Amino acid sequence: MLRLKEPTVTAAGVVLLLALVSLLGQWQSTARAADKRSTAPARAWYLTIATHAGGDALAACAAGYHMASLWEIHEPSNLRYDTELGLKSDDSGSGPPTGKPALGWIRTGRSAVSSGNVVANCNALTSSASTDFGTAVSRSADWGGTFDPVGPIAPWENVPFNCDAQNIVHVWCVQD
User: Fold this and answer.
1) What is the distance of C-alpha 141 from the center of its chain?
2) Residues 83, 134 share a domain
3) How far is CA 125 from CA 102, 119, 146, 156, 166, in A?
4) pTM of the model
5) C-alpha span between 87 and 108 (Å, rounded)
6) Among 155, 176, 158, 166, residue whose Cα is nearest residue 54
7) Given phi > 0 = left and psi -120 to 50 = alpha, else beta, which region is 58?
8) 114: pLDDT confidence band, cut at 50, 70 and 90?
9) Does 98 share its domain with 151?
10) What are the pLDDT digits (tens) for 2-20?
11) Alpha carbon distance 175, 44 (integer Å)
12) Contacts of 66 (CB under 8 A, 6+ apart)
């Protein structure tokens, strides 16, 4: 009877060993799959430190960046603010500065317009004339309730500027 138990014990041991090897293989496969699912680095964006006239905005961004359309940076939770290249304020942390001092020229996505409405674009950012207008935006700094939280570009604020406003308006840039 002892001889009958030995093969059974040996077979049970082999089955147990094979089960452990199988579980170990599945665990390693799952770990490798988790490594492969890591997220890509977030696209960077920033507001230029220097200010620019509207007609100079297209050339204002650093290499590897281009002037942003509002719709490229509208939802910044999907982006990473570049604090090395970008304007900062005393309390901006790893994000952009907010409010009126942080206004930047933005691409509107419209045809060339230079009238004084709120979506003018310095004739598609080719004009720095004082008679032409363009659109600058900033992240709202007003958390006190006077800002319209359901406006069409909230939480951004837009301000029309003369295209020669080179000492006031920065440029929003986004990584290529």
Assistant:
1) 18
2) yes
3) 19, 12, 31, 20, 13
4) 0.74
5) 21
6) 166
7) alpha
8) confident
9) yes
10) 555 566 666 666 666 666 5
11) 5
12) 173, 174, 176
Q: How far apart are CA 73 and CA 138, in angstroms?
A: 11
Q: How many CB atoms lie within 10 A of CB 22?
A: 10
How much is the average pLDDT of 68-88?
95
Contact yes or no for 166/56 (Cβ under 8 A):
yes
* 3-class DSSP assignment, residue 110: coil
- Closest to 153 (Cα-Cα) out of 122, 118, 125: 118
Q: Which domain holds residue 1?
A: 1-38
The two tokens of residue 22 are 């199988």
**How many domains in the chain?**
2
Q: What is the rounded distance in angstroms from the CA atom of residue 127 to the CA atom of residue 158?
A: 19
* Chain segment 116-175, per-residue pLDDT in tens: 666 789 999 999 999 999 999 999 877 665 545 556 787 888 888 999 988 899 999 999
Task: Indicate if 134 and 93 belong to the same structural domain.
Answer: yes
Residues 168 and 140 placed together within one structural domain of the fold: yes
Return the structure tokens found at 147: 């800002």
**What integer pLDDT is reported at residue 54 of this predicted model?**
96
